[in-house]
Amino acid sequence: GESVGLHLPTLSVQEGDNSIINCAYSNSASDYFIWYKQESGKGPQFIIDIRSNMDKRQGQRVTVLLNKTVKHLSLQIAATQPGDSAVYFCAEINAGGTSYGKLTFGQGTILTVHP
Amino acid sequence: DADVTQTPRNRITKTGKRIMLECSQTKGHDRMYWYRQDPGLGLQLIYYSFDVKDINKGEISDGYSVSRQAQAKFSLSLESAIPNQTALYFCATSEGQVWDEQFFGPGTRLTVL
């Protein structure tokens, strides 16, 4: 069946370091992959997405890499700040030829940034 | 996101009680969603609605029902709450494409004793 999972449930880094959060997926038919950030007591917040026909996309301080050969997705955060501490979820979209893209979430990685 | 509001933010209830969670949005989006989140896990889709006349079941709809009263309002009901429905519940909205960013509300923490 479809699944999106994470290699590491927790990640601790020092402020200023770069962070890499990984995600494995199994559905090669997914159309988009998305990273969400969820801070304590809040709903998930969109960070960045990447279409399945791309292998890299950059945003502000974040880069998402997609390796379809090994079905691997990663989120790189440059110069990590204490405000980046949160749970990060990867998710995938599979429209399956319909007008609705079903969003499937992975388990989540807890990122802790130490000052 | 302040454009998506949920009430109540916290609720403690007893087994067998009927509970309604409400969601309102000012983004003008057609699509609205209800998700459930269990500790340490990602979100699971309960129901989604493309417009006021279009409501669809998600992955885990058993034990839940919804009502889309208007474009801006989407309510989730638990007709007879049970303890394993204790979770965080999130409402979200999006525009009308296959993939549009979903904007999430702040969540409702529901505890069923």
Concise structural overview:
The complex is a heterodimer of chains A (115) and B (113). With 115 residues, chain A is mostly beta strands. Chain A has strands at 4-5, 10-14, 19-25, 32-38, 45-51, 56-58, 62-67, 72-77, 86-94, 102-105, 109-114.
Description:
The complex is a heterodimer of chains A (115) and B (113). Chain A has 115 residues and is mainly beta. Helix content of chain A is 0%, strand content 54%. In chain A, the strands form 2 sheets. In chain A, strands 2, 4, 5, 9, 10 and 11 form a 6-stranded mixed β-sheet that branches. In chain A, strand 6 and strand 7 (62-67) form a beta hairpin. Chain A is globular and about 45 Å long. The termini of chain A are far apart. With 113 residues, chain B is mainly beta. In chain B, strands 2, 4, 5, 6, 9, 10 and 11 form a 7-stranded mixed β-sheet that branches. Chain B is globular, with a radius of gyration of 13 Å. The interface between A and B is medium-sized, with 26 and 22 residues.
Question: Topology, please?
Answer:
The complex is a heterodimer of chains A (115) and B (113).
Chain A: E1 4-5, E2 10-14, E3 19-25, E4 32-38, E5 45-51, E6 56-58, E7 62-67, E8 72-77, E9 86-94, E10 102-105, E11 109-114
Chain B: E1 4-7, E2 10-13, E3 19-25, E4 31-37, E5 43-51, E6 54-57, E7 65-70, E8 73-78, E9 87-94, E10 103-104, E11 108-112
Low-confidence stretches of chain A: none
Number of helices of chain B: 0
Low-confidence stretches of chain B: none
| N- to C-terminal distance of chain A | 41 Å
Mean pLDDT of chain B: 92
Q: What is the subunit arrangement here? A: heterodimer
Beta-strand share of residues of chain A? over 45%
* Global geometry of chain A: globular
Radius of gyration of chain B, whole Å: 13 Å
* Structural class by sheet pairing and helices of chain B: mainly beta
Percent range of helical residues of chain B:
under 10%
Distance between the termini of chain B: 29 Å
* Radius of gyration based on Cα positions of chain A: 14 Å
Q: How would a textbook summarize the main sheet of chain B? A: 7 strands, mixed
User: Tell me, what's the shape of chain B?
Assistant: globular
Which percent range fits the helix content of chain A? Answer: under 10%
Largest interface: A-B, 26 and 22 residues
Please give the count of helices of chain A: 0
Major pleated sheet of chain A: 6 strands, mixed
